[in-house]
Design a protein that fits this description.
The C terminus is likely disordered. The protein folds into two domains: 193 residues, NAD(P)-binding Rossmann-like Domain (Rossmann fold); 162 residues, Dihydrodipicolinate Reductase, domain 2 (2-Layer Sandwich). The protein is globular. It is 40% helix and 23% strand. The protein is an alpha/beta fold. The strands form two sheets. Strands 4-3-2-1-5-6-7 form a seven-stranded mixed sheet, with helices on both faces. It has a six-stranded mixed sheet with strand order 9-11-10-8-12-13. Bound molecules: nicotinamide-adenine-dinucleotide and L-homoserine (HSE). Pathway: Amino-acid biosynthesis; L-methionine biosynthesis via de novo pathway; L-homoserine from L-aspartate: step 3/3; Amino-acid biosynthesis; L-threonine biosynthesis; L-threonine from L-aspartate: step 3/5.
């Protein structure tokens, strides 16, 4: 039986939901997945940092209201997040990065991921910034250090879109992808159809845990822009930069527009797409589209998302599932940990695994 010691960077909706899963289902994971999980460090901009290399007792932290959590004064606690020190120095097997997504330069999450990989620690992240803006560099860094860089939750939350493409569509030529890739905007468009005004719908999406810390990224399409970059780079080998993906969001759509569309048999959807041109380059965009009711993406409602892969041998293959949500996204992190286990340690029965890694590195 292996054990993975985790350092959680950011303790907001997603990483807190992961801690809840570990607290509630840890025994089941051991039985079904062949490993146990222990949290040895947590950092958060608001709560500070907490380190216990013997394993943090999660119950009292999870019992506290998120906004009231403070690690200062606890044994091993500090008011300062101390991200760099925790990531580099605390012995952990996996660094789980779930701080705010920064669509401009990916920071500070990009540095968090770099520090972890350079320290020989695996990384799982739901943060789209580092993956979209520096994915190739980070994969190279991970390979150099013999560790994994996993990011299933960066596109479509816990719905396994990236692993489906990587593992199940081998041998096909994927010529393009098209999808609804933002839970917040899709939820909001549904509320607009019901006559709810945009600011109210945004507040509801925030309360449900779908929206970014700054929901502008959801409404103006920047979140989908990053996801299109990730998908296109992963499945089309596109190497897109942000300026390569034209981007229009849903802020110009009113409840009246949404209801008028319904009366004409149409539904407004925020569609992200990337397609290979005949010369091999990739064209990508994010824009609202009024889809006819018979379109495969028109029936995708609420925080549910879907991605259609256009392929040569199978035609169109569409995968649909949750696109946002705290627990759904925490599941993506669990699926990343399972992938790390399968890739590196499935045959090990030693614990803790960071010692195995350190011994391997010492040669
Ligand atoms: N919530 C979802 O449905 C969802 C789905 C997929 C991906 N994501 C991504 O996952 C990440 C986390 O999402 P969330 O919903 O938990 O967000 P959140 O805003 O609830 O939590 C983010 C946490 O990170 C902390 N933080 C920010 N900067 C920090 C720093 N420099 N050091 C330490 N802590 C820092 C904040 O204090 C906050 O508690 C985001 O990047 C988001 O884009 C979220
Ligand atoms: N805010 C994002 C979270 C998932 O990346 C969304 O609504 O889709």
């Amino acid at each position: 039986m292996g054990r993975y010691d985790l350092a959680l960077i950011g303790f907001g909706g997603v990483n807190r939901a992961l801690a809840e899963l570990i607290a509630a289902r840890g025994d089941r994971f051991a039985e079904e997945l062949g490993f146990t999980l222990r949290v040895v460090a947590i950092t958060d901009l608001r709560a500070g940092s907490l380190v216990d290399t013997a394993g943090i007792d999660l119950a009292p932290l999870l019992a506290a209201e998120p906004g009231e959590l403070s690690f200062a004064g606890l044994p091993g606690g500090s008011a300062d997040p101390r991200n760099k020190w925790v990531i580099r120095e605390v012995p952990a097997d996996i660094v789980v990065e779930a701080t705010f997504t920064n669509p401009n330069d990916g920071e500070p999450a990009l540095s968090h991921v770099r520090w972890a990989l350079e320290s020989g620690k695996h990384v799982c992240t739901t943060n789209k910034g580092p993956v979209a803006l520096a994915g190739s560099e980070l994969k190279r860094l991970a390979a150099e250090h013999g560790v994994s860089f996993e990011f299933e939750g960066s596109v479509l939350s816990g719905t396994p879109i990236l692993r489906t493409a990587q593992r199940l569509l081998g041998g096909l030529e994927i010529t393009g992808v098209q999808g609804i890739m933002n839970g917040t905007s899709n939820y909001i468009l549904g509320r607009l159809e019901e006559g709810v005004e945009l600011p109210t719908a945004v507040t509801q999406a925030q309360e449900l845990g779908y929206a970014e810390a700054d929901p502008t990224a959801d409404i103006e399409g920047h979140d989908v822009q990053l996801k299109v970059m990730i998908l296109a780079n992963e499945v089309l080998g596109a190497g897109l930069r942000r300026e390569d993906v034209s981007c229009t969001g849903i802020s110009g759509i009113t409840p009246q527009d949404a209801q008028d569309a319904i009366s004409k048999g149409l539904r407004w959807k925020l569609v992200g797409s990337a397609a290979r041109r005949p010369d091999g380059t990739v064209e990508a965009r994010v824009a609202p589209v009024a889809l006819p009711a018979h379109h495969a993406l028109a029936g995708i409602s609420g925080p549910v998302n879907a991605v259609a892969f256009h392929t040569d041998l199978l035609g169109t293959v569409t995968v649909s599932g949750p696109g946002a949500g705290r627990t759904e996204t925490a599941y993506a992190l669990l699926s990343d940990i399972i992938a790390i286990h399968q890739h590196h340690h499935a045959d090990d029965d030693t614990a803790p695994l960071h010692r195995v890694l350190q011994e391997t590195h010492r040669g």
